[in-house]
Amino acid sequence: MKAVGFYEHGGLDKLQPLDVPTPDIGERDVLVRVRACALNHLDLWTRQGLPGLKLQLPHIPGSDVAGEIAAVGNAVSYWEPGVRVAVNPGLYCGECEWCIQGDHPLCVEFKILGEHVPGGYAEYVRVPGTNVVELPTDLDYVEAAAAPLVFLTAWRMLITRAKIRPGESVLVLGAGSGVSSAAIQIAKSAGCTVFATSSSDEKLRKAKELGADVLINYREMEFDKAVWELTGKRGVDVVVDHVGPATFARSLRCLARGGRLVFCGATSGPEATFDLRRSFYRGHSILGSTMSSQKEFEDVMNLVFRRKLKPVVDRVYPLEKAREAQERLEKGEQFGKIVLTVP
Predict the structure, then answer these.
(1) SS3 for the chain, per residue?
(2) What class is the 151-288 domain?
């Protein structure tokens, strides 16, 4: 099959066309004919090389897949070839104590499609039969691929971890990212007042269209000072941060007493420093979050299918232009998701 991937870690020049065997499937797997695959920053980090990540090369990135089932394993009786599906990219064992509790992201063998195993920059991808959901007929493959990872991540962050409530205020950093565009919609749909930050007025305009109530251009004023002024020195109830050390201390300074900082990434680095005294004195909660359980995935995708939440597509490229697509993502030029189509 045709694919795009890399034989060694490094820059954009390492990404190249591949001709590799179509994956064999196990008895509990399905083979998905990929029609669209959305990009994530995880694709960039995997290509560049993550500490401790040992891959069988060549490696095919891509976590967000939509397509149709091409074949099913012998033990899969609930799917059949031809069904249009989207894929939950979180892979779990189903047997450890965390899986038994339904908390799949804490699985001792948790993996992510496109990071630990070959992903969707290809004509076909193998996934467990339990990890797919059927698409409604009125949702195209590009929109479907733009939804899973960012919506399931934002849903778990806000609904499961931060437990947002109507009337609360939520600050979402970096409005142009996929997770942020999803978080803005989820927080707004939950009845919250949404603050959004960006360095671009154009991106803030688009954030407003998604439901953001208060817009902060952090090139004009540091976002923590802006939040402090705009809330009358109260702060916000929840901050959604996926940036890491570049913003972490200021995110905490934005919190009201009893506020919650929920974070899902470390784009700017792995280590953050902040004033412990301020956080324990003001009763802050710092909540790590990653991916979602299968139920959380199904819950949020159901809202996408019902058009209660809308995937935001920035630009669409054919698979053979994956390098150009990653370059756009690397430069941070996008608002929402960049999607590859597979002919």
Answers:
(1) CEEEEECCCCCHHHCEEEECCCCCCCCCEEEEEEEEEECCHHHHHHHHCCCCCCCCCCECCCCEEEEEEEEECCCCCCCCCCCEEEECCEECCCCCHHHHCCCHHHCCCCEEECCCECCCCECEEEEEHHHEEECCCCCCHHHHHHCHHHHHHHHHHHHHHCCCCCCCEEEECCCCCHHHHHHHHHHHHCCCEEEEEECCHHHHHHHHHHCCCEEEECCCCCHHHHHHHHCCCCCEEEEEECCCCCCHHHHHHCEEEEEEEEECCCCCCCCCCCCHHHHHHCCCEEEECCCCCHHHHHHHHHHHHCCCCCCCEEEEEEHHHHHHHHHHHHHCCCCCEEEEECC
(2) alpha beta
Q: Which tokens is 64 given?
A: 């967000």
Instruction: Calculate Rg over the CA atoms of the chain.
Output: 20
Tokens read off for 35: 């029609």
Tokens coding 342: 């597979």
The pLDDT tens digits for 187-199 are 999 999 999 999 9
Question: Is the alpha carbon torsion for 186, 307, 293, 330 positive or negative?
Answer: negative
Contact 23, 119 (CB under 8 A): no
CATH 3.40.50.720 maps onto the chain at 151-288
Q: Which fold has domain 2-147+311-341?
A: Quinone Oxidoreductase; Chain A, domain 1 (3.90.180)
Tokens representing 26? Answer: 């196990």
Portions of the chain given CATH number 3.90.180.10: 2-147+311-341
Sequence-distant (≥ 6) Cβ neighbours of residue 259 within 8 angstroms:
235, 236, 237, 238, 239, 282, 284, 285
- Please write the tens of the pLDDT for every residue from 132-189: 999 999 999 999 999 999 999 999 999 999 999 999 999 999 998 899 999 999 999 9
d(CA 236, CA 233) in angstroms, rounded, equals 9
Q: Which residue has the tokens 């199904």?
A: 298
Classify the C-alpha dihedral 72-77-81-84 as positive or negative. negative
CB 254 within 8 A of CB 52: no
